[in-house]
Amino acid sequence: MEFRDNEAIYLQIAALVSENILLGKWPGEQKIPSVRDLAVELEVNPNTVMRSYEFLQNQGFIYNKRGLGLFVAPDGRDKVKVYRKERFIQQDLPEYFRNIYLLDMDLDDIAALYKRFKAENFNHKPDNEK
Fold first, then answer.
1. 10/45 Cα distance (integer angstroms)
2. Given Cys at both, which of 6, 14, 128, 129 links 52, Cβ 3.0 to 4.6 Å?
3. Main-chain phi, psi angles of 62, to 5 degrees
4. What is the pLDDT of residues 45-100, one digit of tens each?
């Protein structure tokens, strides 16, 4: 994973975990990688992964089963989606709209580009989404 300089690493790791939940790779009630395993995989300090997991637990996306590890909450996907939508609307969308306006782009063109992007990158939906 290549980390960006403009956001804390623990938040980028939390975003990666959230994305796995949204994509259905880690469905509700599934055990997620241990702190140590994910730290090794991402080549980061385990404390950084622990901070990410604490953040995700505080949001209710994952939970701890004492002695067994961390698991995706049964409604984790729904909670992640609500959180990420709100964050996108508040942080990313204003800049997106600004660029569309400044570049004098048409929303129909954007829609066509989005459809092509989806087809090329996400040709399937998670099992639990229509």
1. 10
2. 14
3. -130, 165
4. 999 999 999 999 999 999 999 999 999 999 999 999 999 999 999 999 999 999 99
